[in-house]
Amino acid sequence: MSLNPNQPLVTVIITCYNQGRYLTTSIESVYSQSLKESEIILIDDGSTDNTRIVAEMYPDVRYVYQENQGLSAARNTGIDHAKGKYLVFLDADDWLLPQALAINLSLMRGDQRAAFVSGAYQLYYEDRDQYQNVNNEYGPDAYLSLLRGNFIGMHATVMYARWVFDSFRYDTSLSNCEDYDIYLNIARKFPVLRHQQVIAVYRYHLGNMSKDYPRMLRGALHVMKKHEKDLRTEEERESYLAGIESWKHFYSKEILLRLQSVRKHLSAEAIDRDRETLKENSPELFAKLTRDERSIEKRARKGIRMLVKRLLPVVIVEKLKRKPTRLTDLGVVPLSTDFGYDRGGPVDRYYIEDFLQRHSGLIRGRVLEIGDNDYTLRFGGGKVDISDILHVDASNQDATFVGDLTDAPQVPGNAFDCIVLTQTLHLIYDYKKAVETCYRVLKPGGVLLVTVPGISHIGQDQWGKYWQWSFTNNSLNRLLTDIFGEKQVKLETFGNVLVASAFLYGAGLPELTKEQMNYHDKHFQVIIAATAFKK
Q1: Each residue of 297-353: pLDDT tens digit?
Q2: Model pTM score
Q3: Are residues 205 and 219 in the same domain?
Q4: With helix as H, strand as E and coil as C, how does 55-122 read?
Q5: Model confidence over 428-477: pLDDT tens digits?
Q6: Cα 283 from chain centroid?
Q7: 297, 327, 350 — which closes off a domain?
Q8: Over the stretch 375-405, which tens digit does the pLDDT of each residue have?
């Protein structure tokens, strides 16, 4: 690939953490560059998937493995290994267009004082297979423009002069927005260049960190606060204050759009987190959200009343107006068959997420979750070193292991500090084998966090045909103690007669008070949860 492999002109540093499924595209995009005087360094930040195997398919790629330390540390490692005069950082799930290196290099060669040059990019929406050009506006002063917002947007559009890293490195204390931080550092001290040619593609998929809008907003505001001490002029301070408002407005709009368009797919906790972020950072948009919520609720109630009056005989309508006192007054048709997703969120998720929140200190180290890693990332956060996903469907690109939990020899034994297993065992016919697998793959001292349904209607979605069981505290306790040992298991039950009835009827979480939710009667078990430690 390189015309001079010992002295490449450009080093492309690809950082990868469990994204081996995308790696071929990113590597091939460098091989396809019109500029051939380059090298590729792949920094594997502790991946547990096929990253190394993919890298070994390319003899010219210099593969460097390190224990998981985060994106900033991985990029710093790449800098230490780079031979090129110019550096480009490419995330494993993105790719460069064929002229990217040549375009940026020509501009950098034209101004030897420049610390970096940046260009425009495309968004690729993986779920829709659609592209969208992104070309952010900026002013004549790059530092002032960056204070007002991150006009660069995509890190792979940037080509750095190697010498700039003698002055700056990526801040390993930052969990996100580390690229924005280094742009500000560099642009404050050195000249930088910009152009509007599209040179890279940012892949937008379910795993992107950027989808966690509250977290990204906190990260951006944290970086802004970090740079406040460096402001020297009134113009810089004005740009800084405008930037804070710009970040708040940008993410508040995204949050509002998400709550308006895909609310039914969000967990109750995610909705609460989005609403609190919106309330804190954009009272105006929060007021709009609450008005819309009231309007929707009002229209829904009015529509239901009109429908009832139109379809039911008068005698039944009058009966429904009376306070129900007998079982027959409740009716035989549920309010919802979607577990309350269409009425503000599921009741049972409140208990599941409360259980995980109270045991979040156990979600640490290397964690395995079944299906996806949403709960691992949400409740484990920075305590998680490696997040693995076991999924039965090989087409799931986020899975680090593919297979059936009852028979998973490909999952290493004694490997995990924690397993998050929520609402899964009832879908498995031989659930005992599934728990035995969990025991096998846990490290000694590792913990299984498990929840199962007790009182529940059978799902009417794609999972309904797999629904095998409901549990009680006695059955779950027997199952776990037979495998983990009696002293290693602790159970909890959640629910009461009101919650169980509301859940069966399909009521949503907002229709019950916290006091009603938090009263637990072991004779009405909606959710059973347990911790089980491996000796």
Answers
A1: 666 566 655 655 555 555 555 555 555 544 445 567 787 777 877 777 888 999 999
A2: 0.59
A3: no
A4: HHCCCCCEEEEECCCCHHHHHHHHHHHCCCCEEEEEECCCEECCCHHHHHHHHHHHCCCCCEEEEEEE
A5: 999 999 999 999 999 999 999 999 999 998 887 667 788 899 999 999 99
A6: 25
A7: 297
A8: 998 899 888 889 999 988 777 777 888 888 9
Q: Are residues 286 and 384 in the same domain?
A: no
C-alpha angle with apex 405: 403 to 407, nearest 5 degrees? 75
User: Domain containing 186: what range?
Assistant: 10-209
State how many domains the chain has. Answer: 3
Look at residue 484 and give its three-state secondary structure: helix
The verdict on 131 and 270 lying in the same domain is no
User: How is the chain split among helix, strand and coil, in percent rounded to 5?
Assistant: 45, 20, 35
| Residue 504 in domain | yes
Q: Distances from the Cα of 181 to the Cαs of 76, 172, 221, in angstroms?
A: 14, 11, 11
Residue 486 lies in a domain: yes
Please report whether residue 336 resides in a domain.
no
Which of the listed residues 177, 209, 241 is the one where a domain comes to its end? Answer: 209
Claim to verify: residue 132 and residue 164 sit in the same structural domain? yes
- Judge contact between 159 and 10, C-beta under 8 A: yes
Q: Determine, yes or no, domain membership for 322.
A: no
Two structure tokens written together for 63: 């593969």
Are 24 and 14 within 8 A, CB to CB?
A: no
For residue 187, pLDDT beyond 60:
yes
